[in-house]
Batch of 2 targets.
Target 1
Amino acid sequence: MNTDECHRVRIDFGSRSYPILIGAGLLGDPRSYADLPLAQTALIVSNVTIAPLYAQALQRALAAHYPRVLLLTLPDGEAHKDWPHLQFIFDCLLEHGCDRRTVLFALGGGVVGDMTGFAAASYMRGVPFVQVPTTLLAQVDSSVGGKTAINHRLGKNMIGAFYQPVRVICDLDVLRSLPEAELSAGLAEVIKYGPIADMALLDWIESHLPDLLDRRPNALAHVVRRSCEIKASVVGSDERETGVRAILNFGHTFGHAIEAGMGYGAWLHGQAVGCGMVMATLLSHKLGLVDAACYERLRGLIGAARLPVVGPVLDADDNAGRYLDLMRMDKKSEAGEIKFVVIDGAGRALVRSAPDALVREVINASCREH
Amino acid sequence: MNTDECHRVRIDFGSRSYPILIGAGLLGDPRSYADLPLAQTALIVSNVTIAPLYAQALQRALAAHYPRVLLLTLPDGEAHKDWPHLQFIFDCLLEHGCDRRTVLFALGGGVVGDMTGFAAASYMRGVPFVQVPTTLLAQVDSSVGGKTAINHRLGKNMIGAFYQPVRVICDLDVLRSLPEAELSAGLAEVIKYGPIADMALLDWIESHLPDLLDRRPNALAHVVRRSCEIKASVVGSDERETGVRAILNFGHTFGHAIEAGMGYGAWLHGQAVGCGMVMATLLSHKLGLVDAACYERLRGLIGAARLPVVGPVLDADDNAGRYLDLMRMDKKSEAGEIKFVVIDGAGRALVRSAPDALVREVINASCREH
């Protein structure tokens, strides 16, 4: 690690503030883990895809700090973000006699981060944990801000906690091994920060999209850092999503309906969010908030990032009705009224309800059989 | 409700502070629930023993505040404080389309309170909940302070959260229906507050024990109020049990070993704590902290409160070894070292480790086949 190339973004939660480290080669460098809470045991939670690539390097780096470093490997994918697999983490901790000082390390993407974070929040009512995100999506979004959860058969992320990590370590080198679809899925969340908070970032992404798709380290470093800065400023002022934090869900209301309707794991989360942003932008347009050019621009960029821009048909008889039913289950809904995050075209987002008829128009215009 | 007879004890957690209301007739009085968070739906979680007695009165009182009041009835007992039964709460919430404003009401003893609290902590990452404790133990201990959890097959309360209720409502009338063994179990936690914090309370309990066992309202009101005051002052300064809060676990390290070794539910929690306090006091004596008279005094009072003062034999070959193994699994243990809460005889508790040989002496002197 060249320390000159390591950026630090601080997330401010008072006594629970923590740094995000961003740079190349951080994962295997013991210095990345200096000054973490002391413990007898560190438990790395990873999955069958990521563990063979990076677990050994992380174990070696942690051995400098912890007398015992355990590794638990879960199956890969959103379909396994459930209680039985969370239980594997508790079983492992208890079978190894892990005490309440034990530090958990989430080595993987959003699923591993969500599960490890919720396990850390709940084990003995809370132990420290570190996020080591290995996907672009996790680096720019899910590892930052303390949202943890598992899925319920009736809804995504329905059971969880707001629980902050003590550190987030974004190693840009690991993004080289990312499948192309997952790189694009991560770009969906990067693109999101433009229309909701920073139109200059949107300009930058448009002009550097080829570099990002080629995984140029400097380009990735810029968007990871800028995304984390925006997310840090938003969540720092609203840890428990009682207000402004909801804008980070731009594209997610439609996106969650796609994920739930298709079955978790059929679409990558970022793909569903990309497509969901197209739909949320069309809704913004129909609400008179943005012009057609803004819609076309975002739709074009999302497509150029190799993300789907046409939604799936979830019900052949009443597709829009099915979307509406699923969206009413969204956590942001209140008393059956769906709350949509919409944009104003100038880098600001707002939360609005919308008439069902208008939402049906958006869905009908945005979906077809894939 | 005669409002003159309603005492309020405030628990100070900054923006998450809340009142404990203590009085007769509070449960069925709509005024007890005034100014709670607004919601479309309230969900009462209770058990098969308590629901037939009090659920209807609570439903009627809540109907003044919530358009929809649901009731979920769980089986009774510590043996059911597990994931499958927690899942029933999530199923109920999601099947009824409950949003993140939904308010949960825990109507029952410690098990119902722990499960409802953890469900509230985790549902959509946190919804408000109210404790309506119906046992003396829950009124003086488990409903106050925000500890919530479920059991794991390898340990009690291993999975949970620190999550504060928005109100605690202690109706003294409901204690009339309490089985005798549960009244005594509650008295164990009441007695506990004496040696760890307030010897005057211990004197008062000794001189009023017949009134307490006869469930005289004035006597119960005094101990519930004083217990809540002591607990409030301790947990208010240490929400997450990083320090002083641990003294509330006096008797619990031995007690948890009894509960785990006998199988959860075989002994009431308060019975195990009562017996555990006898053992912890003997350990305090062997450590030179209290004299023999103090030990005899506490042992006598615990027995007079109809609580067991002799521990069970958990392993015929190596009973002390079995206790030690179980106590090493306690959440307060660190790196395999058991932390005991001991007393000084003057109303103060401290956390200490002790040589295994000395702990073995205590166990050998305190246990026999029941």
Note: Chain B touches chain A at residues 40, 83, 87, 90-91, 94-95, 97, 99-101, 121-126, 147-149, 152, 154-155, 157-162, 240-241, 328-329, 331-336 (CB under 8 Å).
Target 2
Amino acid sequence: MKAVDRILDLGRKVDPVIMEFLERNADRDFIPVLRHQIESGGKRVRATLTLLSCAATGGSVKDGLIPAAMFELVHNYSLIIDDIIDRGEVRRGVETVRKKFSEPMALLAAMFYRETLDEMAEEAHSSPEIRRLMRETIKELIEGERRDILFEQAGRESPYVESLRMSDVSFREYLEMIGKKTAALFKASCLAGGYASKAPRPFLDALNEFGWKIGLAFQVMDDYLDIFGEKTGKERGKDIREHKLGNIALLHALIDLDDEGRKALKEILSKTQVTEMDVVSALTLIEGTDSRSKTIELAKKLVEDGKASLKALPETDAKADLMAIADFIYERLY
Amino acid sequence: MKAVDRILDLGRKVDPVIMEFLERNADRDFIPVLRHQIESGGKRVRATLTLLSCAATGGSVKDGLIPAAMFELVHNYSLIIDDIIDRGEVRRGVETVRKKFSEPMALLAAMFYRETLDEMAEEAHSSPEIRRLMRETIKELIEGERRDILFEQAGRESPYVESLRMSDVSFREYLEMIGKKTAALFKASCLAGGYASKAPRPFLDALNEFGWKIGLAFQVMDDYLDIFGEKTGKERGKDIREHKLGNIALLHALIDLDDEGRKALKEILSKTQVTEMDVVSALTLIEGTDSRSKTIELAKKLVEDGKASLKALPETDAKADLMAIADFIYERLY
């Protein structure tokens, strides 16, 4: 774990870049709102992926710095929005932007982030490609978030949302959703590093595939930790409280459960108010299935697939670090 | 008025362009959400300004079409956000996006609009200039909206907002706020038309000044109609209900009122719940001052200034139409 912390330190290099761009032309009173999301923590995984992908294909830190800052900022943009959508009050142990500064201010900060991204794109190397990649990635994020909402089983008092709600979610539908919600940004973070180093097509393809697979693995592990995690600093079963069927550990459990168990679990997810007793009941039902091992296996396979796709890249320290990050995603288990 | 309707028909040319861009890569189920804001009406003033500004400086409709669509879409982007911030339920006589499709869907639609704007910018003529103009304009909108919120006297339960709330607003502060909230987009809509026709600097300056002045006039008239308007289809005194001190008719009244009247009016604006009786009392207080005539005079002067700044442009039908739009802004009075 220590080694991974050292690797992720690389991603911290984007912090001053992000802050400098965010504060350009911002009103003095608005700056604390703009800084909060960035200052409240985060591991800078996406920025690290961009910088390492750039280095692993022959680029310098200087080449990758603005693209790395961009994709890290895209992530933080999506987090502010997520917290508005899910009415989140605490993230990474501190108040969310909406909780600390009010919802309208959080919304305006998110909009401001988006304009800042455009300024960054203008200054980034290989600008048109990176700008297009960013735009397509944000569109994917929007669609992923939209589907995640439609996979919820209750909690949005909206006839429109209710009319589209999906009470069954297949593996394919789940993978499509997390592909858009999470993996697209991992993929783009890696690919942007390749663009920044002006890497040849086979290297870009390798980075693309690597980012995609570890991005899927990352979300599978996030789902796992939500249901089975201990000492993660997060409350267990948040997805159950939020009626989210778009969690692979839940989907695995639903397949394994008998009709009665399946019905009971789905009923809990569909309750307008999920009590703590409900969460315990749901977790007990899930623990009685093979969900835990199946979910771990899936994450492991995705990580291994991701690592294998780096074969095309020359052996460098940066490539070894990318491999270590892939392992770290899986090892968040322990 | 008939003549102005005919002129504004020009702006409707952007509707199919906006729809085509919005529907690119959008999920089928998301399309009704994306279409609603555009289909729910609007006069297409901004698109018309871009197309006329382009024509008045020698460009064709083809040159100006995408820029016109862009600035009209920026406007609609800001309206979706405004309705989220002000919890708006009805706009132009129909349900707002957030009311009809839920707040998360409205938010995602707004984000999608922003990415669509980037796609449009990529295809627009003089792309880098227009993209920069759009970005700077959206940043102005954000700051204008932020200040408008800080000029409210109640209604946001947020220690942060309360700590920055301004209980006195000067004319200068008011003009800065509406400059950002409204006039910046009018200015940009005109300037974009000039960019699209590749107009020389003196023409760009003229369009810039024209857009700025009539944009200010437009907001002054909006404020006027909110307080004094009849048969506008909107409820009178919405700004009073929403605790907004950033309304020139209110500011004019506060200057004219004696200490007692001023105190009474400010107390109403600061009430957590403004009743219909309160609105009537406030309107009566305002009617007893010179606010009505002063506000009209201000709008008239701004419109005249705007028209004067078009002097530099050759006499064309398009210029005459720009003049007619300027007059229309002022004549919304009657």
Note: Residues 2-331 of chain A form a domain with the Farnesyl Diphosphate Synthase fold (CATH 1.10.600.10).
